[in-house]
Amino acid sequence: MGSACAITPGSAVIRRDLSVVVPAYQCERTVGDVVQGTRRHVERVVVVDDGSRDRTGEVARAAGAEVLTLDRNRGKGYALRAGIDRALAAGAEAILLLDADGQHDPEDLPSFLAAWDARRPDLIIGVRLEDRRDIPPARFWTNYIGSRILTWMSGFELLDSQSGYRLVSAALARRMPLSSDGYAIESEMLIRAARLGARLEHVRVRTIYNDGGSHFRPVFDTFRISCAAIYFKVFDDSDARP
């Protein structure tokens, strides 16, 4: 069995026991930096090219990522589910999730790794809302309201429910029957994790908003996410994979 860590010439420890999954759509300008920054901390990075029409997959591969290419644009949730399945099949003990559009700083990864090593929580969420001055008002309020709604629905005290910067343990990932194709994947994950009695922690991450590179529509997508959350809370009570 190989070591869980590798030592580079610069003495940085690069983890082999975890995998990173990056859903990517039309991100050729940013995905290379995301992959390179992430691989300074974790060796295996899986970029799921969600049917991009630009050079997203090519740039990610050149930066050192393993690229899983979807035949057409299927949505962030579908891409994340495909990437998580790939990471689980490779034996990852935990999976780090971050976006390819530059809004998640890879230099925040050590905070997730430290929390994971210290207590092995089932789910860790990166929190941005403390830096309110750096957040566009529409994004702040839709996220704040969404977090209050998801706190009530899940029973977790959630500080940033829409944050896609997360770590999920392999044990929890195997038990969650995720089904969302779009942005509702993050809310679905929270509701199902709560139903399974998961242990949740938060870590603070840098606040970066690059709405020119993001495909998220604050009001419209938050409304859809809220509707989907109600569905998963009220109507879908499946709580384990077969």
Write down the CATH topology.
Answer: Spore Coat Polysaccharide Biosynthesis Protein SpsA, Chain A
Helix and strand element order: EEHEHEHEHEHEHHEH
Number of domains: 1
Separation of termini? 29 Å
Number of strands: 8
What would you say this structure looks like, in words?
The chain starts with a strand and ends in an 8-residue tail after the last helix. The mean pLDDT is 83. It has helices spanning 31-38, 56-62, 76-89, 109-119, 137-154, 170-175, 185-195, 218-234; strands spanning 5-7, 13-24, 42-49, 66-69, 94-97, 123-127, 166-169, 200-204. It is built from 8 helices and 8 strands; from the N terminus they run ββαβαβαβαβαβααβα. Strands 1, 2, 3, 4, 5, 6, 7 and 8 form an 8-stranded mixed beta sheet that branches. It is α/β, with parallel strands linked by helices. It is 38% helix and 19% strand. It has a single domain (5-234), classed as Spore Coat Polysaccharide Biosynthesis Protein SpsA, Chain A (Alpha-Beta Complex), CATH 3.90.550.10.
Q: Could you give the topology of this structure?
A:
Layout: E1 5-7, E2 13-24, H1 31-38, E3 42-49, H2 56-62, E4 66-69, H3 76-89, E5 94-97, H4 109-119, E6 123-127, H5 137-154, E7 166-169, H6 170-175, H7 185-195, E8 200-204, H8 218-234
Parallel strand pairs: 2-3, 2-5, 3-4, 6-8
Antiparallel strand pairs: 1-2, 5-7, 6-7
Helix pairs in contact: 5-8, 7-8
In short:
This protein is an alpha/beta fold. The protein has a single domain (5-234), classed as Spore Coat Polysaccharide Biosynthesis Protein SpsA, Chain A (Alpha-Beta Complex), CATH 3.90.550.10.
